Each structure stands twice: as C-alpha cells, then as structure tokens.
Amino acid sequence: MLRLFSGLIPQAGRAAAVQVVTSELRVTTASNALYIRQYASQPAPSPAEAGTTKMLINGEFRESETSEWLDIRNPATQEVVSRMPIITNSEFEEAVQAAKGAFPAWKRTPVPHRQRVMLKFQQLIRENMDALAANITQEQGKTVADAKGDVFRGLEVVEYSCNLAPDLMGEYVEGVSQGMDTYSIKQPLGVCAGICPFNFPAMIPLWMFPVAVTAGNTFVLKPSEKDPGAAVMLADLAQQAGLPKGVLNVVHGTRDVVNNMLDHPDIKAVSFVGSNAAGRYISERASANGKRVQANKGAKNHAVIMPDANPEATAAALVGASMGAAGQRCMAISAAVFVGGIGKYKDALISKAKALKVSAGHEPGCDVGPVISPEAKKRVEDLIHSATQQGAQCDLDGRGIKVKDYEQGNFVGPTVITGVKPEMDCYKEEIFGPVLVCMETETLDDAIALVNSNPHGNGTAIFTKSGPAARKYQHEIEVGMVGVNVPIPVPLPFFSFTGWRGSFDGDLHMYGKAGVQFFTNTKTVTTNWKSADAAIGSQAPGLAGVGTNDS
C-alpha cells in the first residue's frame, strides 16, 4: 500500500482510512489511502494548506530544510495541490553519499535477489495503479486512461528487470592460447542519476532506475519540478518491495540540482529525457566531467500516408497519435505527410478531431486534458497563430477553448493545420500540444527526403497497404523507431528506445540490452592455468582439509 505523504495528499484527506469515489476512480486500502480530490465540487487549498513533497534520502522520506519552494498546480484548475522543495546543497550531498555508501553491499547482492525485489515491485505497482494514475491526473492533467497507460508502460520495464540476468551475462572463449581462457563480465558503474520530464511522471522514472538498480547500481532520481508526486509514490513502493536504504534516493529542485548531478565526481552516469536545449546542455556538461550520458531530446515525428491507406483507420490513428495526452508526448505524430495530396483524408481527419472531448482528465469521457502550464498553452497557441500568419490554413482551431467548470485550465482544443511548408515555424518547432500539421508531397521519395531533412530522428510511421512501399520506407528513412501502420512505434522493453540524430545524445539507449550496457562496464579477464601445475592425485596447496570431515 502507499504510505501517506503530505506532499501527495491534501490535509483534509489525511486519515487512517478513507474511501473516496471520484467520477472514474475509487481508491481504498485497509489502513492507509490516497485521498483524491473531487475538483469540481471542493474548494482549492491555499498554498499554506497544501502538503509538501518529500525527499527520499538513505531510506527515509524527509521534509527539506530549504527556504525555497515551488507550487505544484493542477493544470485543469490552477489549484495548488502540493509544494515541492528546491533542496539544499547539503541535502543533495547527503543523497549522493547515501547512494555511494549503499553501493558496495548492493553490488555484492546476488542478481536473483535483486530480481526478486523487482518482482515484488511490479506487484505493488499493479496493486496501486489507480492511486498512481490519480496523482498523475491531478498533477500532470492527463486523462485517467492516459495516466494508467503512463504507469503501465513503465511497469513493462520493471517486468523486464525481473529477468535481467540474461542481459547481464558476459562471454567466454576457452583455449585462446595454450592453457589460457578469456571471459568478460558486466559490472555496475556505481552511483547513477536520472533527470525526468513532466510529460510522463511515472513511465520515465521507471525507464531509468529499475534497470540501473537491478544491474547493481545505486540511484539518485530527480523528478520533474512540475509533477513530482508519482515518482515519490513509486520510490515508496520500491522501498516496500525491498530496496535497501540508500539504493534509491529522490531529490527535488531545478537547474542547481541538475548542475550538482552533472558535476558531482561520485555520479558515474546520467540519464535524461526532455527538451533539446536541456538535453544538449546536460550532455555537454556531464560528458565534460567524464560521465556516461544518455539524453533523449526533442522530436518532430512524421507519419507518411500513401494513397492506398484506409482513410477512416488512418484518420483515427493520426488523431489519436497527435492529440492523445494533449500532444505532450515525445513520440506524438505532429506532422502528417500525404503522398499525392490530403484530399480524401481531410474530412475524416477533421471530423474525428472535432469529436474529441476536452475537459479535466478525471471527467468521464474526456479525450484531451490540459497542457501542463499557462506558459505551455501560450506557446502552443502562438505557434498556431504563426502558421496562419505564414500562409497555412487552420481548418480546426483549438485556440481560446473554454471548458465548463474549468475556465482557468490550460486547455488547447484539437487543431488541424493544412498547407504547411517546411520553412514554417509550426513545422520547425516541436509544438507539444494537440496539434497536427499536414503537408503534401508528390511521391514517396519526396516524403522520405522531407523526413530525412528534418534534424530530429525519434519516431515515424507509414500508412499503406503496399509491402514494397513499407519496406522502402523503413530501409531508407533515417529515424530510429519506425511503425508500419503503427502510429506510435515505442518498442517493448526487450528492445530499446532508439531515437536517432537530433533526438538523442549518447551511444547507448534507454532500457533493453542497450540500457543494461549503459549501466554496466565490461571487464575482460584472461586466465592462465598450466596443466603442468595441476597436482593430479593430490590436494593443491592451500586446500588442506577441504573435503574431509574437519572442513
């Protein structure tokens, strides 16, 4: 069960046991419970009434002694649901030293035991799925369905970590020379760190620390300063699953905490997901300090639609991939390229987008929740405006939408822009909102050239009934993850998340075999045991007593 953290639960709901029914969610436990607000009917707490988000240092959830705090706001209402500390330098140092101190014993812990911790962890995540999703909806704004998907896609990596041993295996060659054998082993790095974005507050932490700690490392995690609650809840469940003190630590803050992670000599590797600018900065600074880095950055993901694609099915896929999660996905399809023209697809596309319900994430039937902040809303609406100013047509305009009972929410409605050209800002920028920009090319070769000329290379998809066209596309496209009639081709964890070009800095990708390689060093051992030295028929020196009744 989830323990009661004041940072995750409004004060009015702190009790030994509560039972609350919301429009789509019921959370009940025997002795503890997560209190979920019914936002439409209860007044917002003042910042003084809101709880605080705790740090996790050396197995203890603690209140920070900082004087600097950030308000965590519900994007649908602007109410303050929690307050997050910008922790002090000394508290950060405590977290790193806790991880460093825990490393030797955890490294020696047998792999099967580490896997059993993950097995218990995945069970606890499943049991607390609703509570985790409710917190995500509260802090990030996603629909309940999207929030559960957020947790589930992270859970898949935990499940993968339950059987990590095969990917931790080295190699062995017998007889590389007379009496000599060579083998390799994978050993953990030490203290590793993770810096998380706001858009997947459960999934991204679960992409990071489960693989790292199961491989034998210890970890310092920094959740997003916009929605840290889910990461703290997951850390609590990981503690309950059996992670020893200091193996996982959670710190909070902004740029200064990130810089501390990038500069600290005891941190050996940094995993990051976020924007282009932040990713470049983190990659350059951490690398300059001799750290291993994997930085998943921004994207402009294209879907190429061939003339033979099914109009209704394709339109449905495009709308879901571009506007689900309010478009705040690094694998969202934000650019649709129609080979031969948009013609027969346009009406179905606009009709399906227009039918989406925009509301607070916990409301029944909600398809599109708010974007994360008023600043994000303004940026999305400014890019839509720039498209109209630069010659594109806004066939469905989601600017200025007002949602009943949530007039203060950060809502942008579904938006479809046609006639987009490569030089327009709405194409060059990652919009990160429920917006689909539509482009046209004459041939598949033209479409491939367009996609390859974009600096990003995260994900892409082609919609077609033609096997040769699909094969040509997947072979020639310079993008790391490709879907054939699959709009968001995020690989399952036994593969890796393989963004290319401007979407990724580093050599080793997240989760899967590449993720294991990232969190381990390979050591190669060569042994020399000469047959002439074998004491055949007698005990070898130093083994007196072995195998006797005295041993």
Structural class by secondary-structure content: alpha/beta
Q: What does the main sheet amount to?
A: 7 strands, mixed
Unreliable segments of 5+ consecutive residues: 9-48
**Helical residue percent band:** 25-40%
Strand order of the largest sheet: 17-18-19-16-15-21-22
Total number of β-strand segments?
25
**Basic shape:** globular
Distance between the termini: 47 Å
Mean pLDDT: 89
Content of β-strand: 15-25%
Q: What does it look like?
A:
This protein is of the alpha/beta class and 551 residues long. Helix content is 34%, strand content 21%. The strands form seven sheets. The protein has a seven-stranded mixed beta sheet with strand order 17-18-19-16-15-21-22, sandwiched between helices. Strands 12-11-10-13-14-24 form a six-stranded mixed beta sheet, sandwiched between helices. The longest helix is centred in the N-terminal third of the chain and has 20 residues, at 89-108.
Question: How would you summarize this macromolecular structure in one to three sentences?
Answer:
This protein is of the alpha/beta class. Helices cover 34% and strands 21% of the residues.
